[in-house]
Structures are given as structure tokens and as C-alpha cells.
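Hi Y.,

Following your request, here is the sequence exactly as I used it, all 856 residues.
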Amino acid sequence: MRTEDWPRVEELFHNVSQLGAAERDEYLARECAGNESLRREVELMVSASESNPSFMERPLLSQGLRALYGGTAESLVGRSLGHYKITRMLDSGGMGGEVYLAEDCRLERPVALKFISNRYAGNDWAREQMMKEARAVARLEHPHICQVYGVEEIEGHHFIVMQYVEGETLASLMKRGRLGVERASELAEQIAGALAFAHVRGLIHRDVKPQNIMVTAEGEAKVLDFGLAKFVRPQREEGLGGGADPGQTLHLGGVVGTPAYMSPEQARGEELDFRSDIFSFGVVLYEMLAGRNPFLRDTVGETIAAILSDEPPPLPSSDPFGGLALHCLSKERARRPESAEALPLRLRALRSSRIGTPPFLPRFIALRRHARAAAAAALALLLLLSVLAGYAYRKLSKVHTLAVLPITNQSGDPATYYLSEGIARSLFDKFSYLPRLRVRLPSVVPPERSGRTELAKIGRELKAEAVLSGRVFKDGQSLLLQLHLLRAEDAALIWEETFNLGAAETIDLQDEISREVASQLGMWLPGAALYRRQTDSEEALRLYMRGRYEWSQRRNPGSVERAIRFFEEAVAKDPSFAKAYAGLADCYSLRNNVAYGAAGVREAMEKAGYNARKAVEAGDSLAEAHTSMALVNLQYEWDWAGAEREFKRALELDPDYAPARYWYSNLLALLGRFDDSIREAEAARSLDPYAPTSENNYARAFYYARRYHEAATHYRRMVEQYPDYPQFPHMLALVLLQQGLYGDAIATLERLRETNPRYANGALGFAYGKAGRPEDAAEILRDIDRLSTPENPMPPLERALVYIGLGDRDRAFELLEEVYRNRFPGVTYLETDPMYDGLRPDPKFADLARRLNLRP
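Below is the corresponding structure, written out as C-alpha cells. Let me know if you'd prefer a different format.
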């Protein structure tokens, strides 16, 4: 019998196994009419099966097993079961169980429904086995495994609800011709990853074959029927009713699988371990590479004999994957790869080293054997190497872009809230070490944009090819981290994994996650990059994460103080922890802002400078450290050249570090380079588009450039969008003042003063003075005095602004001199902020500007 007839033999065998003797003869006479050799082959298989019940145990679903699946008494097409509307049959039995395509009307998605036979619906053992195996497979949430959504019992029908995978089987794909090494290796890597994922969770597939692997239209592999091969009925189990006894062909300790893809131990009916799947994977890999199954013969007996004793024909020596396939096909399981986890890594390494060797290379090698063609062969080979070098360069130099989104904390435990901010930032820090990976880390994401489609849209808005998001939650007493990697283009799930935060060190998790994400993005990375760390101290890292969480809550001045405490404890644990020093520098720099208290500005900025220098010393290649140093030069040292040098160094190290672009735009405005300032502010906004600070900085750049109409338009929109963000009404009022709209500006600041007088008073007093309301301005001066305390004094700049509005230049300059002596940073905008324009005619203005290094 021909090899290509084997699928028909297999189909007939599994059908007649369900029939009595009389029905069997009638069925074979009808189905094999005119083909006696086909009938003989089927009868031989039946005879062998009856004489040895463990000889040819059929795989569940993939080869029929109509005892449990299929065999429903009626077609269900067009019916609705619960919220499932059945549209058409996908598999009608024979070579597969009854499987239907249906629409899940509740979730509006297509699903595949696999039915348990009606005649076993009342059997407790059958239902329990279905539930047990469905639960096991439902845990296999992997991008290359067909997912089980649930098990249903509706109107007497029992069925499994599974992911509907649109595409074709690998077997069907290979029938159209050889796949080519590049595509075969890519699919093999995905299949191996799925097997490794299942093995780690204790499940052996036991029926790995091309018919159980779907290939989607996008070229992704999906392994089907994971774990379900164990869903079989033991011998002599009672209570299944009449008809053929499926126990005769379904023996739990016997042979499970498809003959041509069985491992030797599987064919012998021995107890299996994970290495049996590795052998079957080797057969599939070999078949993809060679275009033929290495053991398939004309009969089942010959096929089994080949698996037990024959060595597979060698593959071309030019194929680097042949060695791996043969390694997997070792007869002795101890000689195969120890685990499936090693297979994706080896395949990835082979793909990287091979760089897609074209199939015509052997032709070039053959040409070299002929002396007359030697020169032509050499030239062709040189051309080939040039092409390969170009391909390798493109492959290895491709830059990937990843958006790391804030992680949500759903644990309900305030003591763990820091993990959401801390884990996202620590992963960003880890990814920043990886070459050819550009990372986006928006500080906030709109809470309503949490679905997969919306997250992918965020990725596209951030110009990223993939999006990493996740959540922290509790499962019983365990605190878990679940991460999702999505493709931004179409929201497809690339990778998903759940980690037990209580069972692993955060540092080890960083390494594991970065390895997996880099692998899923198709990146080849040197080992050194994967294991570079900011700190080797788990305690220091946890303290740093707590500090960054408090920093993210910085609208509350108390959170800045708590952040300082955590950062200081972190550097005490690890004195070389550059990021913790940078965090301290940022906290102390922030204290010069009236919104967070201005006590001890000089002391705070001296501490900021000290910690910024420590950050640069400990991490000279860290963009964050150079940004902190630049900020000190900008706000305290008034070293504009030094600040610009540090900002440029930070952006050279990481062009996507949004804080560097944010503050650099302020420096450029201060130096009067307004067009450049707007461009940098726009760049910062594109990197962190959902943060109010980015929006404020962008609009403020127009204000400094005296482009008031554009600034006002933007601020009006932001006031509506962020009603609780005080900077927007404050800046809108300043823009309105420059437009001469004093009434609107004063009304805006008066509303702000009701909730935040410390923030509103200086600008409101300035507005009262400009509007010719000196009594109201005087009241503001008295209120500033009332709000000022020894613990938290109001900075003199607030009073100076009121006198500028009143036109009292002498008093204004007295206060500005005090601001200058205390090095309060607001005075550095003397040449930039339009509020100071009324002082320009006074000679003292030019003198102060020179001392601020703003004029030569």
C-alpha cells in the first residue's frame, strides 16, 4: 500500500473500531469497494488491536475517540446553546471528534465547541475526566497553545469551549511543498516554546504531530489538544452501556499517540516522561526540514519497527537544524535534550548564527569542484557572502521599540501598592541595558484605557512595536504578578506569564522577564547585557521601588519626604546604587518649588548637587544620573553650558528619556532659543503623552515664546481635562494676563486660591496690581505673610511678583536680590518669563541678568 493512503487507513480503522462484527463487514464492503488492499490493511490493524488492546491506542479528539467526543445523535448547526450560536461543523468525527464553530454572543468572539457523546453524558467518570483535563489545559495560557476557555453543560450537551484558531494545520501546509528552513525553524521555535510551557506545568502532550498544530494566517503556530490525550477510559471500566467497548482500544497504561510520531518508549507501551514529546517534536522538525516523515512506512507494523530500530536518513550537512532534529530523535531518551525548555534557545541560537542560508548554497559549493568554473564560483560566493553579511547586519542591528506601561495593583493591600510603580520602573531600568531596544515608559496611562485593544493603541501612539503591561493581584495567600506582551499593530498576544512575587527575588524576576521579552521580540542578545544590574541588593532594590512609588505621588509634599527616606535607606544598603542617588537628587531639587515647600532651598539644592554627583560617579552611562546633574546646574549652579552638556549626554545615552527632554526644553527657553524649546517640549510630550506635566511643559513653551494664542488654546483644553491639576489654571491665568484679559485671569486665580492659596497668591497679587486694584494686591501681601511659617516660609519671589504687578520696581528688585542671594530658581527666568518684562527699562534688570549668567 502507498504511504499517501495511510491517512485513509487510519480513518477507516478508527471508524470500524466503534462497530460490531456484522456492521464492520458491511461498512468495510461499502467503504473499500474495489480496493481490497485497503480493506486488508484495515482488517490487519483491527486484528492487531483486538489481540493486543494496548497496541494502537487512539489519541483523544485528534484521531476521533468517538467514545467520548463526537457521535452526537443530531447535527447542531444553526442551534443556540446558551449564549453560543453554532454556525458550522469543523470536524465531523472519523479523524476527529465532533467540533463546531460557534459565536460566543456574550463576549462577541468565535469559539470552537468540542462535544462529549450524548450516550456518555450521564457517565460520572466521563464528565469528571473532561473537567479534570479541561482544567489542566485551561492553565496553559500561552500564545502558541490553543486555549481552553471553559467546560459547559447546556440542555444535556457537555462540551469544551476552546479558542477558535483560523488557519490550516501544519500537515496541510506541508502537503503543498517544503516550508524552507527559515519558516520551518521559526515555526519549530514556537512549537518548542509551547511544549516547554506545558512541561513546566506538568503536562505531556503525547500526540505531537503536524495534524495537531495549526498555522494561522499570520504564520504563527498553535498547538492543539494539549493534555487531552490523557482523557481516556481505563480498561474494564463499567457503566458505559452497550456497543463496542472503547476499553479494548483505550488503555491508560498502553500506547497513546499516532504511530508515525511516537517515541520508541511510547510504541513499546512504557511509562512516558517529557522526553517522549521531545522525540515527537524531533519527528515534526525533521519532516518540516526534509519534506518527509523519517519513519513512516507502508504499514503500521513497519512504521513501528522503523521507530524502534531504524536511524532516520541524514539531512544535508548545510542544514544546521538537522543536528538538533537528530538529537531529539535519539532512541534512548537519556540521549535526547534533557528538557523542552532548551529547545527554543537552541533554535534561536541556530537561527541567529545561520542568518537564513539560501537553498542554492550547495550549488555554489558544487561549482567549486569544476576547475573551469572556479573563478565564477568564487565571484558568486563572494556575492553570496556580501548578501548574507547585509542580511546579518540588518537582522542583528534592527532596533526594537517596547512600551512599558504602568502596572496596576489589584491586590487591595496598601502595603503592596509600591510594587505597581516599582516593578514597571525596575523593568524599564533593566530593559534600558539591552542593546537595540528602545523603551518607552509613560508616567501615567488613562485608567479607562485598559483593554487589549486600547493598550495596543497606546503602543502605537508611543510608536512602539510591542506593549508590556500587567497587574499585581492576590490568589489566596499568594501575591502574583501577571504580565502581558502585546503586539501594538493588531493587539495580538505575544506572551503572557504569571509570577509568584513571594517565591522569587525581584532581581531574578528582572532577569527572567527581560530574557523572555527579548526572546519574544526576536532579539539576539549577548549574555552580559541580560545580567547587567543597577544593584545586586534585593533590599536596596525594594527600598528604591518604594521611593519611586512615593515620588510618583508627589502632589503631596509629604510623599517627597517619604521618598527621600526610602532612597537614603537604599543607598545605605548599596552605596553604589546610582539610580537611588538620582532619586535623592530629584527629590531635593523638587523642594525648591513653592508647591512642595521651599524651606531651606540652599540646603536642599546642595544635597541635590551632592547626590547628582554621586549618581554620575556610580553610573556614568545612566541617562537619569546626567539629567539629575543637569537639573542642579540649571536650577542652582546657573551653569547653562554645563547643564546643556549634561542634558545632551543624557539624550545621547537614551534619546527616549522623557525627563531629559522636558528639562532641556526649559533650559532652551531660558536661553531664548524658543523654537528649539518647543521642539524639545513636543518630543517630551510624545514620549509621555498622558502626563499632565508633559502637557503643561508643552503649552508653557509657547507662553515663553510669546505665542499666547496657542498657549491659551492648549491651557483651556487642559483645564477642562484636568480640573484638579493646579498648574493649568495658574498658567492659563498668566497667559490671559499677557493677552490683557485681566478679568478672566483674576477669576481663574481666585478660584484656584480657594483650594491652593500658596500656589495662587503670587500670581493673583500680580494680576490685581496690573488690573489697578492695589487694595486687593495689598491684601494678598498680608495673606502671604500669614501663610509663611518658620517651618515652611513663603519664598520672597511670591512677594516680588506682587510688587512687579503694582509697578513698585524698587521693592521688587529688593526682593529679587533676596531671591538671588538664596539662589531660588524662579529668578533664572528673568529674561524669559513675560511677567518680568515691566522691569526691563530699569538698569538693575541688566545687572541682575549678567550676574545670573544670562547676559555677557
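The mean pLDDT is 80.

Thanks again,
Q.
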